[in-house]
Design a protein that fits this description.
This protein has 336 residues and is of the alpha/beta class. Strands 2-8-7-9-4-10 form a six-stranded mixed beta sheet, sandwiched between helices. Strands 1-3 form a two-stranded antiparallel ribbon. A two-stranded antiparallel sheet has the order 5-6. The chain binds zinc ion (ZN). Belongs to the N-acetylmuramoyl-L-alanine amidase 2 family. Its EC number is 3.5.1.28. It holds the Pfam family PG_binding_1. This is N-acetylmuramoyl-L-alanine amidase.
Length: 336
């Protein structure tokens, strides 16, 4: 069930998703023409990052008349509905199932307010409210028109003109989130599941980008909620922040499993901390600052436990002790 013609339902559909909507006067008749069949939605950033970015989207620039997008997504998660008609946003490019260099007549544009530039730590100025509304807005439109999540596309993915927007958003991860909302609605999440995208972990604010501290405004609220759940299981304060107590708890879990105690929480440490037993497939943790492995001191008088973990801890110092006589024999000419 495709939709042919202008998406005159934009404001209603977004509101039904629980989003805040501002309808600009005349939006129903604003545009560069009538939509044909609607096949997708394209995500952009404004590159301005100011509360006035929407004016450029509505009225255009000296070189390009407005409207430049159907929707503007503010930093607080509010949607401005600017135009129901065709907007100049896609430019030249291609995407499976869309007409090459001609997407504007088939694709709804969302311009989200962002500078598009990373800070010194490589992070972008997206707010949690904005990212949440971005995902839910795309899901609401996809559900209304009935196109698949594969048609929620970043300008940077479509463009043959070197566009980089929306910068700082991994579109594959974004589509996974949109799919989750389409299928489940904004319902409860499985809190046992590691809440971060692939390659990310809970760690210090100083970075790198994959290190989620719970302290940066670009981080999603559900990540902090996830960390609180893990903290509750460790019986430490539920701060939602990777603080000293959290790093200590992670190190305790890692030591109990014979892993390098770096205090960072990736999927392996996450699962181990929740289950209190080794994860089926321990995932190697990221290693920004390698720490020396503590050397266990063998105690020959103490009967060794049949536990394989303690065996492996004892093994290598004993091997060294056994090798010392041979090493000495080879180097000192006894009896010659
Ligand atoms: Zn764009």
């Amino acid at each position: 069930m495709a939709w042919v013609g202008n998406p005159v339902w934009l404001a209603d559909v977004l509101r039904a998703e629980g989003l805040t909507v501002i309808e600009h006067d005349g939006w129903l008749t604003r545009g560069h023409g009538e939509y044909r069949d609607i096949r997708g939605v394209m995500a952009h950033h404004t590159a301005g990052g100011t509360p006035n970015d929407w004016r450029v989207v509505m009225f255009g620039r000296p070189d390009l008349p407005g409207p430049l997008s159907n929707l503007v997504l503010e930093k607080d998660g509010t949607y401005r509905v600017v135009a129901a008609g065709v907007c100049w946003h896609a430019g030249r490019g291609s995407w499976p199932g869309w007409p090459t260099n001609n997407a504007n007549w088939h694709v709804i544009g969302i311009e989200a307010v962002s500078t598009g530039r990373p800070d010194a730590q490589g992070r972008f100025d997206w707010t949690p409210e904005q990212l949440d509304a971005y995902v839910r807005g795309c899901a609401a439109i996809a559900r209304k028109v009935g196109f698949s999540v594969n048609n929620v596309v970043g300008h940077k993915e479509y463009s043959s003109e070197g566009k980089i927007d929306p910068a700082g958003i991994d579109m594959a991860d974004f589509r996974r989130q949109v799919q989750q909302v389409i299928v489940n609605g904004p319902g409860p999440v499985d809190r046992e599941v590691f809440p971060l995208p692939t390659g990310y972990y809970f760690g210090p604010l100083e970075g790198p980008t994959e290190s989620i501290s719970g302290q940066h405004p670009s981080e999603r609220p559900q990540w902090r909620e996830g960390l609180k759940f893990w903290q509750a299981r460790q019986e430490i304060p539920q701060t939602g922040v990777w603080d000293a107590a959290t790093a200590d708890a992670a190190r305790a879990v890692q030591r109990a499993h014979g892993w390098r105690p770096d205090g960072l929480i990736g999927p392996g440490t996450w699962a181990a901390g929740l289950r209190g037993a080794p994860a089926p497939e321990p995932v190697p943790e990221p290693t920004p600052t390698p720490e020396p492995e503590p050397v266990p001191i063998p105690e020959p008088d103490q009967p060794s436990a049949p536990d394989s973990e303690s065996q492996s801890n004892l093994r290598w110092p004993l091997v060294i002790v056994r090798r010392i006589p041979g090493w000495v024999r080879e180097r000192i000419p006894f009896g010659r």
